[in-house]
């Protein structure tokens, strides 16, 4: 039984300088203002001297009905992983929150056998009425490495049992970047199946998949794609017909790939190319990887977004770009999300993506969040911000970008061997109410960090009906685009791969 604390809304200091790495649970109508009161929903409870406190990073979330479940790392280690996975759950649409730690994973938490935990995601299984949280368990013996992929379950999102084991790494192996999704379409031939994707760095980021047909209790033996493809950071998207499309970076983070299963995870086809990635190196000592994010609309169309500099002269900064597919095989040309002009100096990175339920195609309601630096080549005085932009017509036009938060020094963030870390990904979820879940960092006191999980206290305001809309239809990629970053080996936790 995890230790839990229930929190009623408590506003944070109104003028505290903050940055958000966010998970948005948004209404179908968007956001009109960035000025919101915040409620603290979790704090790092650990005091072990081997990791950085107080720090909470890299949240993921999922919404079902009035229940919101978010998960994140607590007590980040410099060389990978965290003291444990924390959770914050609201069963009343964000009015009050209960937070605690996932049991059965780490020694630091007290009931697990592994040294650290990382790379967590959460979903809901509608068939079995069960919440599922995936975690990457890390071991220190022989060097810090991903040792096992685990899945915890709960009927209420608050009381969590001992996790089931998806896969344990072989001697010398190195698991990384797992992600979890379930088939929640009742008419699907594979309704109730759940799928986990991860990669094995020790085998050149070999992609691995596993399937559960009993609500996450047991998992199939791991399997590769038909071509034994390699990749990093894959995100399974389950279509209404039961097909599963997985969007993933290549091992060098230099292109986006996709592969799929049409038989409920019995087999996985060879990966196809979505698009190359042209990467501007993010300043400020940041760990900011061009990992893809993905979501699907109600019709099953899959949308992929990532940071890319191909619309900027001389790769001067990153935009957020998008490609879509109805079948996971044929993908649209890359388009730019028009957050600002291609001549601006703003650098945009680490996008989050969500599509409102019951919307699709030309009427899909899309939300994109992202981190940004106002000056892409900043040096000593970099100030991180988070923005949000939305579309109500499937990405044909977009609202003006909104600033959600701004003004945090990278030095206030936990450090990693790849740079100062907000997180390698963002996530967004749409439902009837809007909630952003994110780490809020304040100035450090000596070597002690001050970072907690926060959410907006009230429903985020609606977008104005008369807001202007912007299109990037006439924006073109520059001739012969190039990247600032050229990795010569696959990326993994304790190296930037350059």
Give the gist of this structure:
The protein is an all-beta fold and 498 residues long.
What report would you give on this structure?
- Strands 1-7-6-5-4 form a five-stranded antiparallel β-sheet, with no helix packed on it. It has a five-stranded mixed β-sheet with strand order 3-33-32-2-31, with no helix packed on it. A four-stranded antiparallel β-sheet has the order 8-9-10-11, with no helix packed on it.
- The model is unreliable at 9-34 (pLDDT under 50).
- Strand 13 (194-200) and strand 14 (206-212) form a beta hairpin.
- It has a single domain, classed as Neuraminidase.
- It is built from no helices and 34 strands.
- The radius of gyration is 20 Å and the shape is globular.
- With 498 residues, it is mostly beta strands.
- The chain starts with a strand and ends in a 28-residue tail after the last strand.
Distance N to C terminus: 43 Å
Secondary structure class reads mainly beta
Largest sheet: 5 strands, antiparallel
Please give the oligomerization state of what you see: single chain
Which CATH first-tier class would you pick?
A: Mainly Beta
CATH architecture: 6 Propeller
Q: What name is given to the CATH topology?
A: Neuraminidase
Q: What's the total helix number?
A: 0
Approximate strand percentage: 35-45%
How would the global form be characterised?
globular
User: Compute the gyration radius: what is it?
Assistant: 20 Å
What's the number of domains?
A: 1
Q: Largest beta sheet: what is the strand line-up?
A: 1-7-6-5-4
Determine the mean pLDDT. 89
Indicate the low-confidence ranges by residue numbers: 9-34
Count the E strands: 34
Report the helical percentage.
under 10%
């Amino acid at each position: 039984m995890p230790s839990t604390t229930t929190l009623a809304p408590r506003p944070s200091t109104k003028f505290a300088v903050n940055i958000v790495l966010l998970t948005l649970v948004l209404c179908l109508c968007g956001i009109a203002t960035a000025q919101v009161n915040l409620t603290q929903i979790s704090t790092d409870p650990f005091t072990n001297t081997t990791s950085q406190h107080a720090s909470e990073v890299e949240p993921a979330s999922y919404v079902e009905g009035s229940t919101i479940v978010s998960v994140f790392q607590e007590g980040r280690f410099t060389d990978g992983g965290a003291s444990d996975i924390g959770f914050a759950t609201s069963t009343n649409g964000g009015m009050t929150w209960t937070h605690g730690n996932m049991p059965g994973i780490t020694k630091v938490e007290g009931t697990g056998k592994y040294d650290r935990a990382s790379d967590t995601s959460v979903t809901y299984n509608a068939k079995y009425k069960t919440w599922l949280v995936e975690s990457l368990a890390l071991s220190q013996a022989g060097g810090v490495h991903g040792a096992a992929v685990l899945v915890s379950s709960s009927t209420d999102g608050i009381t969590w049992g001992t996790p089931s084991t998806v896969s344990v790494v072989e001697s010398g192996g190195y698991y990384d970047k797992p992600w979890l999704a379930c088939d929640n379409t009742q008419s699907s031939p594979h309704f109730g199946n759940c799928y986990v994707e991860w990669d094995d760095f020790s085998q050149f980021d070999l992609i691995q998949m596993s399937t559960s047909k009993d609500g996450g209790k047991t998992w199939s033996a791991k399997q590769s794609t038909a071509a034994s493809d390699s990749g990093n950071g894959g995100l399974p998207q389950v279509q209404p017909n039961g097909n599963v499309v997985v969007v993933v970076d290549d091992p060098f983070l230099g292109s986006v790939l996709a592969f799929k299963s049409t038989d409920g995870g019995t087999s996985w086809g060879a990966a196809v190319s979505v698009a190359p990635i042209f990467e501007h190196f993010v300043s400020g000592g940041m760990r900011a990887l061009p990992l893809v994010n993905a979501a699907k609309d109600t019709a099953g169309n899959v949308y992929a977004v990532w940071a890319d500099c191909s619309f900027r002269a001389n790769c001067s900064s990153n935009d957020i770009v998008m490609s879509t597919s109805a079948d996971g095989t044929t993908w649209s040309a890359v388009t730019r999300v028009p957050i600002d002009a291609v001549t601006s100096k703003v650098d945009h990175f680490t996008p989050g993506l969500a599509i409102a339920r019951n919307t699709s195609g030309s009427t899909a309601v899309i939300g994109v969040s992202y981190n940004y630096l106002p000056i892409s080549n900043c040096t000593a005085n970099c100030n991180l911000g988070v923005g949000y932009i939305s579309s109500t017509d499937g990405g044909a036009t977009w609202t003006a970008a909104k600033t959600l938060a701004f003004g945090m020094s990278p030095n206030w963030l936990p450090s990693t061997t790849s740079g100062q870390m907000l997180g390698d990904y963002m996530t967004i979820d749409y439902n009837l109410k809007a909630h952003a879940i994110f780490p809020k960092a304040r100035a450090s006191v000596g070597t002690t960090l001050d970072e907690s999980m926060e959410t907006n206290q009230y429903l985020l305001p609606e977008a104005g009906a008369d807001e202007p809309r912007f299109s990037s239809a006439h924006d073109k990629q520059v001739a012969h685009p190039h990247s600032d970053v050229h990795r010569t080996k696959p990326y993994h936790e304790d190296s930037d791969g350059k």
